[in-house]
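Structure tokens please, single chain.
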Amino acid sequence: MWFRTAWEVGKKELLHLRRDRKSIGLTIILPLVAMMSFALAYGDTDVLGISEHRVYPIGFQNFDRGPEGDILIAQFKALETEAQEARGEVQTVSFEVTELLPTDDPEEPVRQGDLYGVIVIPENFTGNLRADGRQAYVFLIGDNTKALIAENLEKFTRVLLDEAQGKAFGRPPLQEPPATLIQTRHLLSSDVGQLAVFYPGIIALLTAFASLNDIATSITRERTEGTLGHVFITPMHRSAFLTGKLGAGVFLGLLRGLLLLLVGIYGLGLVMAGSWFVFFIIVALVALATLGIGLIVAALATTERSVLVATLLITIVFMFLIGALTPVEYMLPTSQFVALSLPPTYGVDALRRVMLLGQGFTNVGILVDIGALVIGSVVTLVVGAVLFSKRGLGIK
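Here you go.
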């Protein structure tokens, strides 16, 4: 009897799932999307079959009074050309070399995100390299707000520096000690840990997930319980209904952002380098853009089960591809295209700039991120409102 009852209950659940074809489709698609998102973020081969090739835009600032500094830069450019010729054949990493003037601030292009790092060749480089018993140095300025890129940039710079000095000066590339050492200076001090680097991305990710889930489940629950139909037979306009929902969602997003920021500062000992006002503007835009995505989900998914699966699916994509865990610049070309089409990606970058680097509205990168968030919010909200006006009651 017990087994028969269990069998009937299980069969009933499967029959119900069969009737809800959207749910069964999402159930099958969910693990596939999860694995695809992971592969896009961390894979060595592009989903289009392109071999791994990452290009590192770096700068050189040469203060050397002798010829060896110019020779070293020329060798880096030659190695970069050789690496680009090998594109598609092997896994390669190449440099796009930009030469800075001695009067330029080497940290500024790194702060702006135009260059991943700048190699500064000091004025005594030639003398130290030629003198017996003396060590030549170059200085690498990197952006450790994107830890994975900073670590790999230092590693590949070391390798290519060994190769370049072997070709330029006739020295064996792996001699001990090396002819040239790298002294690294990052934008953030060494006291800033990995938690501080990842925390802005976590705030953006949690804000996006909560906002997406809030509006999607709220509207679906009201539709299932029948209260949505009762609301729509009143004189209330649908735009007023949606505005109220969105306003509450943005308020909750700001509240969550505040709580997470306070926990980070007073509970985890993190530092807020930038403006709190700019921080809240960015959090509000992240919440608004993902509320639009949630509205689209609520308009298309007619049952609570399908909404749950859809929001989970989108959350997995966000987790791997908006840059919260892996810098977008480190991803492969197709992965970057997908990441840059997601509004929260710009929220992650903007929060890092504000919280870690102290940048504000005078920074071009912040303005670009905010502009992308505004466009993303408008697009998702318009699409969501149109779909909701046609399918708000679940009418197909």
